[in-house]
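A further point concerns the way the authors explain their paired sequence and structure data. Since the whole study asks how a given chain folds, the encoding of that fold should be made plain. A single example would do more here than another paragraph of explanation. An entry of this sort, consisting of the sequence and the corresponding backbone structure tokens, reads as follows:

_____
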Amino acid sequence: MPWRNPRGFTYSEKSISKNAPNESGVYAIFREGLWIYIGEADDIRGRLQEHLDGGDRCIARYSPTAFSFELCPEKERAERRTELIADLSPPCNRIFG
């Protein structure tokens, strides 16, 4: 199933603080032409900030420029993340699962 949110935001501290919600859902970190990582979290903003702080060498290696997210309840997040990983094949999910 394809990514549902057509909006993308700049992958920067300022943009994450302004645009990412402190809510439950899945998120994508990407650059033009490449989905880099798909994750899920109770707090999308907090988790994206952790990634931006350099906690994931794989993500940094691919030089992400944008992020997006889909809000969804906790009980649906893991399944949605699994669907997106299967559909989009982000390289950093192959390493981290």
Residues 9-89 form a domain with the GIY-YIG endonuclease fold (CATH 3.40.1440.10). The beta strands are 9-10, 25-31, 34-41, 66-71.
